[in-house]
Fold this sequence. Notes:
Layout: H1 3-22, E1 33-38, E2 41-46, H2 49-54, H3 68-79, E3 89-98, E4 108-116, E5 131-137, E6 144-145
Antiparallel strand pairs: 1-2, 2-6, 3-4, 4-5
Amino acid sequence: MNKSALIAFSCLLLCGFAVSAQTNIPTHWSPVSWHFKVDGVPHVAGIDHNAVMSARTWDPSKPLPLSFESVEIIARKKLQQIVADDGVWKAVGFEVNRLSFPPDSSNWYYTVHFRTTIPRQEGSITNYLDEAEVLVDFNGKPGYFDND
């Protein structure tokens, strides 16, 4: 490689580092995210990858570390951050999900699916039931909404 090509490559590499340093890196890296709306306001539910990795591991042949009842209580408390009245929200589903990376991971997390029991208020554009998801790690720590 001649001297001018080496200088050009070095400048290009330096510019790449400068641009990368100015890039907004998200506060959390989530292995999964759920997108939903509450009263027409968009939200994203996620869970920090490191929180799931540092939580207790699980073997599907063993009992779950937290009951669905316990997970619902944790998730409902988190849901209260974005809804005015959690009393009209009902848990309609639970999932237990394995991290997909690393491929042989023994780390899992819960997903709790909520739905309102009454349609959106009169005057809204549509008359549907809102839905929301909350993620919880196996230590009982909830995930986050909208990078909180």
